[in-house]
Design goal:
The complex is a heterodimer. By secondary structure, chain A is an alpha+beta fold. Chain A folds into three domains: 3-138, no CATH class; 151-579, Ribosomal Protein S5, domain 2; 668-831 and 840-1101, Spore Coat Polysaccharide Biosynthesis Protein SpsA, Chain A. Helix content of chain A is 42%, strand content 16%. In chain A, helix 1 runs antiparallel to helix 5, helix 6 (81-88) runs antiparallel to helix 7 (92-106) and helix 20 (504-517) runs antiparallel to helix 21 (544-562). Chain B is of the alpha/beta class. Chain B has one domain (5-271): Spore Coat Polysaccharide Biosynthesis Protein SpsA, Chain A. Chain B has helices spanning 33-43, 58-63, 83-89, 91-94, 116-127, 171-177, 199-211, 220-229, 249-259, 264-276, and strands at residues 5-10, 22-24, 30-32, 48-53, 72-76, 99-103, 106-110, 131-138, 146-152, 159-167, 187-197, 233-236, 239-243. Classes of the chains: A alpha+beta, B alpha/beta.
Chain lengths: 1106, 280
């Protein structure tokens, strides 16, 4: 048995916890290949799930990190298209089969290794997720719902107390469930991830506190922040209403219940299904909703379910959505006798049942949370721990731990009342305003756990000890020590496991609070997956009130300074909180107390009033009567009246403001209305579109051979000397594309990618611009001579980039650092249905797991409807003005340098300037390498293009011989999807330019740069020779309390790579090492980028000055 | 142990005429449902019967007893205070004897020579323990019955030692509480409407009634307590029960009786004729 298999299977903890990285140290290429083959064979015959998953992670690590370091590994290879397709279809096992066959044929190479690494990684997570789902389905109390296939099978019956006695009843009887949210007082090092708890139950421990909340300064008192209302109605329908999301729906069709993405009520639908009222087994049975509801509620009856959240924004890290789901499920289960008591708190069995159903609901809704998230259903403070599986458990024999942990309530004997009071008097709970996707973090944590990465594993051990310490401090009421332990946890083990949990915003807040409050600031505590959203600051109680006020100011100011560089979803908030000692509690309300939330009436009453009195249903009449009756003495309802009446009148003012802002921006940024109309017409007529981006199908596409490229690794020594001399003579300037917001990087959040402080260098968070300038500083220090650095900007990035450079690089800005503002802008359009369908159906798409895919398909149907109803090709204006505009592609960046006078100023400032090195903001390894400069200078080409060998994640084009000519080709221009997989070289998008030769191509010279008409004509003429592409971009629209929608919108681009197709401009091509040419497109890449040595490599290129 | 007495509950005020309905039995003889129930017990060796009825129903029920009228006494439940309370009304009649308990709205048909009641009495007499007849029931019907959880005793008979009794559980609760090894997924052992009990059940019921005077008294809680006190068994009888109070229950019971009896062919031909008629 190989050592790796021994590590996986060993009963000896010391062996089992050995890190694979530790094992791989010093191993030869042949040893690694042999170990991979053994693991591959082993995983197929291993029956234990977690051992199989661990083998998959080991295989991932060997292919992603260990093999690529081996010099014997071939550089260049191709990922077979069938393997890529299978990866997208989530058929990972098949994909691995195809890749291994190809490896046998081609030999191991970096490209195949990357694909195998990705496939093993994805298969490991797929296996884990499937197991959790299987366990959720087979958990006792859940399984019956999956067996139900016909309305007559429905065993649930509503409680008679909820049946309306007559249509004349003043109000319908209703159930109200009020539930706390939870905070994790330890930060458990993410040990509440299901996979961890199920494999390492002894290490899965959290201290979980149920709390009531109020927004400081807004709410007079704290209260359970989550409410669910349930009532039986005399209509055979299901009415769902979310007060906080201002959405409601009346469902008459059974299949619509399972359509989660159709509206904003997916959580409520998931609750109804998970509660068994509409059991999951009945989906697609052909049954009618009325028949099914009739079984439970009686013929002709249905029900209404209403959710209400007390104004807590998304991303609070307080598990609001899981606890809301729990409240909704609990009320549905009370109504149908699945919970013993109709009113009052839940008993332990019922709480566990609700928690399991909430997990089921999260799975159905395609979301996911940790196992402690439903903690708000339980009362007070509790220790939640992983539970080893035993005979009789659904998990026994499959995983070491159970899906659901065990909850031990810590009574006043363990945590005295005084200690609880002290905690409440010291802790300031806030939402910092950032809302980020923590999914990648949770994947990183799981992977590092299963691999037992050395430092991270030690850190995990420390967090387990920290919990004990925190428990002791809390028991003794020593909140100061508790604060210190939490701070140490955040700065130590948590950042050791995941460095990306901290950010510049959080660290600034901590520093400012510490500076202002000194010894009265007792500690910082991060809630949830990462910092910036829900956070806790612990103070001396004497200064807590002052701290609440100041923290809001400090956070607001920091947000204002950083909102261009970090993804903020909302303004920061300070909460008031109290410990909730009851847990989820139900109450039956009958007239006259059966009052719904004010927001419900605000939402529903206007529509009711628009109907004539005789058309109103009994329910609507009742609601109006209750509302009228209560608004006479209830101030909250009285206050809602003017707004309610206002809603009945059409309002124009807000839309008009947004439109005038947009018009101003368009005017200010050189929007060409004539060209825009022409593009719209062509788009509507089908003359342009995604399908039209492609080259003719008869185009001959061939891969390059190695002799087509200069290989930097084999550069003759004199190139370095030629380059060094040129640098010393001031012949080079660097141009960094920084006009885009990096929508993939921040998932459409709209902040400036170049300014995102994404990683720590030299002890501080630095952004992309900092890193590029630090490299330029080093070049200058090494070779002398001035290397001007230009950042191109757009309307989206100019002001914030300028402000940052002015403040941070005060002396250099305007001298060696320049900005080249954009001079072109586009207005996004509502896409055509044809393009949407092309994007979703004709291009290869990443398939998601079953439930997420269902959500996605449902969202796509809604988006198609949106495009049709809004008008295909119409201007996209239903968003913030900045989100409606778009940059028009990086082809325009170089013409902009000419048009806006930047190039002319550079030449005047540095007459020796002859070359430009142009690169993407995220190509962190790009430097003014003298050997590259020497090569390009010697090539006498107009443009020199840098390539890297392809890895599976490198999409979007590459280098090819197109109809006999070597050039850069965009992925979207290739006639067939699979053509891209014939190519071995990927475009690093770093381009060397001979300034004078390029000017000649524009029909310009250095001396004609100051002639605007010559410049304009030159740019227009050359622009006409490169293609215009239509693309779809996902744009976020934010609304409510941190809620977001994503819309695909159409826009137009010209891309610089197409310059290589010009027959009258000589291009040269070079192969550079991966670390020089790779790009950081997605924050999920950061961890691998650090682990594979790329971060250290970039750090070695930088000079941070004094 | 010899069981000579039977206690039949028929005091549900919303179903007080059900046991009086006329069915044609397996021999083709029209009889009331009550008479069919009594005859099953008599065939199993029961000598004396007590029927618990609503006030004023005695005469009608007496007429419905047929030949067994002379061996039958009546007890009256003056107020509808639950199934358990109905049983208590028969305590004086039963005395200290063990007894067979049947419900007035269930007809039982055996799959074997011995009647369902006889199968149960054989077990009770052999094991010297209270025993309830049960039948594996689909989870969709759970909320109509009491249900038990327990483990197989072993041996030739499908006999279980009961550890849990729940009245009309939801499947959510049943999946968690009513574990029976060997039972098919989605099926639970539900009461069959036949029990052999003794005077201890009256003690338990009386205690519960004293603890909550004036409330409705069920039987399942007392049976659960019984399981906590002593060995209490469940027999999966070879037969079927027909709840004549359910939707189409009377019709189903009649069809079952006829298809299992001498008029099978005649009834089959009627059914086929009906099936062949066009639907409007």
């Amino acid at each position: 048995m190989s050592e790796l298999i021994d590590i996986i299977r060993s009963e000896d903890v010391a062996v089992r916890n050995r890190s694979v990285d530790d094992w791989g140290e010093g191993k030869s290429f042949d040893e690694l290949i042999a170990a991979a083959a053994e693991l591959e064979a082993y995983r197929h015959q291993e029956t234990n799930l977690y051992q199989r998953v661990r083998a998959l992670f080991f295989l991932h690590v060997l292919h992603r990190y260990h093999l690529p370091r081996q010099p014997e590994l071939g550089d260049s290879g191709r990922v077979p298209y069938p393997a890529f397709q299978r990866l997208l279809d989530r058929r990972f096992e098949d994909a691995i089969g195809v890749l291994l066959k190809m490896q046998e044929k081609q030999g191991a190479n970096d490209t195949l290794c990357s694909a195998l690494g990705a496939a093993y990684h994805a298969l490991a997570f797929q296996t884990l997720a499937n197991q959790v789902r299987r366990t959720v389905r087979s958990t006792r109390g859940n399984a019956w719902m999956f067996r139900m296939g016909h309305p007559t099978d429905q065993p649930l019956r509503v409680r008679p107390e909820l049946i309306p006695q007559s249509a004349q009843t003043v109000s319908l009887p209703m159930l109200v469930e009020r539930t706390a949210v939870r905070m994790d007082l330890t930060h458990c090092a993410w040990s509440d991830i299901f996979f961890l708890g199920m494999d390492y139950p002894e290490g899965a421990r959290v201290l979980n506190v149920s709390i009531d909340l109020g927004v400081h300064g807004r709410d007079p008192a704290t209260r359970p922040p989550v409410e669910a209302y349930f009532r039986v109605i005399d209509e055979p329908v299901m009415r769902l209403c979310s007060v906080d999301l201002e959405a409601s729906v009346c469902i008459r069709d059974l299949e619509e219940v399972f359509d989660f993405g159709r509206d904003y009520l997916g959580l409520l639908k998931a609750a109804v299904i998970a509660a068994g009222i509409i059991p999951p087994g009945i989906e697609r049975s052909g049954a009618t909703l009325a028949d099914l509801l009739g079984r439970t509620f009686g013929p002709g009856r249905g029900f209404e379910l209403i959710s209400n959240v007390n104004g807590i924004p998304k991303g609070s890290r307080l598990a609001v959505s899981t606890n809301l789901l729990g409240a909704l499920i609990a009320t549905c289960m009370r109504a149908t006798r699945q919970i013993a008591d109709l009113e009052g708190p839940l008993n332990e069995r019922d709480r566990r049942t609700v928690a399991t159903r909430a997990i089921l609901g999260e799975w159905l809704g395609g979301s996911g949370g940790g196992w402690q998230d439903s903690g708000g259903i339980w009362p007070g403070i509790k220790l939640i721990e992983g539970k080893a599986s035993e005979e009789g458990d659904a998990e026994f024999g499959i995983s070491r731990g159970c899906l659901l942990p065990q909850h031990t309530r810590l009574g006043h004997d363990r945590i005295p009342a005084a200690a609880r009071e002290k905690l409440q008097q010291s802790l300031v709970l806030v939402h910092g305003g950032m809302a980020q996707n923590v999914g990648p973090i949770l994947e990183m944590v799981t992977e590092k756990y299963l691999l037992r990465c050395v430092e991270e594993w030690k850190a995990r051990g420390t967090t387990v000890d920290t919990l004990e310490a925190i428990l002791q401090h809390l028991a003794h009421g020593d909140i100061k020590a508790l604060g210190a332990a939490l701070t140490a946890n955040f700065t130590g083990p948590l950042q050791q496991i995941i460095p990306w949990v901290s950010n510049r915003y959080t660290e600034r807040l901590i520093a400012e609070v510490r500076a202002e409050f000194g010894d009265s600031f007792w500690g910082f505590w991060m809630l949830g997956g990462m910092s910036g959203g829900g956070m806790g600051f612990i103070f001396d109680p004497a200064r807590r009130e002052e701290a609440q006020a100041r923290l809001l100011e400090i956070m607001t100011a920091a947000k204002r300074d950083l909102e261009a560089s970090l993804p903020f979803a909302m303004d920061p908030v300070v909460y008031d909180f109290t410990i909730n000692e009851s847990g989820s509690t139900g109450a039956l309300r009958a007239a006259p107390e059966a009052l719904l939330p004010v927001g419900y009436y605000r939402q529903m009453v206007p529509a009711t009033l628009r109907q004539s009195a005789q058309d109103l249903t009994a329910r609507e009449q009742n609601d109006l009567a209750v509302f009228t009756q209560h608004s006479q003495h209830d101030p909250a309802l009285r206050e809602a009246l003017p707004e309610l009446l206002g809603q009945m009148l059409p309002s124009l003012s807000a839309d008009t403001d947004a439109e005038s802002n947009l018009a101003g921006l368009l005017r200010a940024n050189g929007f060409d209305a004539t060209q825009h109309e022409q593009i719209r017409q062509e788009l509507r007529d089908g003359r342009i579109g995604l399908a039209m981006n492609r080259l003719p199908s008869t185009t001959k596409i061939e891969d390059l051979e190695s002799r087509d490229l200069f290989n930097l690794r084999e550069a003759p020594a004199d190139y370095a000397q030629i380059g060094a001399d040129a640098l010393a003579a001031g012949e080079l300037a660097i141009v960094t594309y920084a006009a885009g917001v990096g929508s993939r990087w921040t998932q459409g959040a709209g902040c400036v990618k170049g300014l995102h402080p994404f990683a720590k260098f030299d002890g501080q968070h630095r952004n992309f611009i900092d890193v590029h300038l630090a490299k330029t500083r080093r070049t200058h220090a090494q070779y002398g001579g001035s290397v001007p650095h230009v950042f191109t900007t757009s309307y989206l990035t100019h002001a914030s980039t300028e402000s940052y450079l002015k403040n941070t690089y005060e002396g250099a800005f305007g001298n060696s650092i320049h900005l080249s503002p954009g001079r072109s802008i586009g207005l996004r359009l509502v896409p055509t249905v044809r393009d949407l369908q092309f994007a979703w159906e004709e291009t290869a798409q990443q398939k998601l797991d079953e439930q997420q895919q269902k959500m996605l398909e449902s969202v796509r149907t809604a988006l198609t409807h949106w495009a049709r109803s809004t008008g295909e090709g119409a201007d996209y204006t239903e968003n913030l003005p900045n989100q409606c505009l778009h940059p028009v592609g990086h082809w325009f960046e170089i013409p902009n340098l000419i048009k806006n006078g930047t190039l002319q100023r550079l030449i005047e400032q540095q007459p020796n300037l002859r070359y430009l090195m142009v690169h993407n903001i995220d190509t962190l390894g790009a430097t003014a390498d003298p050997a590259m400069l020497g090569w390009f200078k010697s090539s006498k080409a107009v443009m020199g293009w840098e390539a890297i060998t392809k890895r599976v994640e490198d999409h979007g084009g590459g280098f090819a011989r197109i109809d006999g000519r070597v050039r850069v080709v965009e992925g979207l221009a290739l006639p067939r999807e699979e053509d891209e997989f014939k190519l071995s070289y990927y475009n690093a998008n770093t381009c060397w330019i001979d300034i004078d030769a390029l000017l000649a191509l524009f029909g310009l010279t250095r001396s004609s740069l100051d002639d605007p008409s010559a410049v304009e004509a030159g740019v227009r003429n050359l622009g006409a020779r490169v293609p215009t592409y239509v693309t779809l971009k996902d744009v976020k629209k934010r609304w409510g309390h941190g809620q977001e929608d994503v819309f695909p919108v159409a826009q137009f681009e010209k891309l610089w790579g197409d310059m290589s197709a010009l027959t009258d401009a000589q291009s040269a091509f070079a192969l550079v090492p991966r670390q020089r040419g790779q790009q950081l497109k997605d924050q999920a890449q950061l961890d691998g980028w650090k682990r594979d040595g790329s971060a250290a490599h970039v750090a070695s290129l930088c000079d941070w000055g004094s | 142990m010899k069981v000579r007495h039977a206690l039949i509950t028929a005091a549900n005020p919303v179903q007080r005429t059900l046991p009086l309905q006329i069915l044609v039995d397996r021999d083709g003889v029209p009889r009331s449902a009550l008479e069919i129930i009594l005859r099953e017990a008599a065939g199993a060796g029961i000598e004396k019967f007590c029927v618990v009825v609503c006030p004023g129903d005695e005469t009608a029920y007496a007429e419905a007893c047929g030949d067994l009228r002379t061996q039958t006494e009546f007890a009256v439940q003056t107020e509808p205070r639950g199934y358990g309370d109905a049983l208590l009304r028969g305590q004086d009649f039963i005395g200290d004897e063990p007894f067979l308990h049947l419900v007035g709205d269930h007809i039982h048909l055996s799959d074997v020579t011995a009647s369902c009641a006889r199968q149960l009495l054989d077990v009770a007499e052999a094991e010297r323990a209270p025993v309830s007849a049960v039948q594996p029931t689909r989870e969709s019907q759970l909320t109509s019955f009491g249900a038990v959880g327990g483990k197989l005793v072993g041996g030739d008979l499908p006999l279980y030692e009961i550890d849990t009794v729940l009245e009309k559980p939801t499947p959510t609760v049943a999946e968690q509480e009513l574990l029976v090894p060997g039972m098919r997924a989605g099926f639970y052992l539900c009461f069959f409407g036949l029990h052999v009990l003794d005077q201890q059940i009256f003690e338990l019921l009386a205690k519960q009634q004293a603890a909550a005077p004036g409330g409705s008294l069920g039987l399942s809680d007392a049976l659960l307590q019984l399981a906590g006190h002593r060995r209490y068994l469940a027999l999966n009888v070879a037969g079927r029960r027909y709840d004549i109070g359910a939707d189409y229950g009377l019709l189903t019971a009649q069809l079952a009786l006829s298809l299992g009896g001498k008029d099978r062919d005649q009834v089959m031909s009627h059914i086929i004729e009906l099936l062949g008629q066009p639907q409007n």
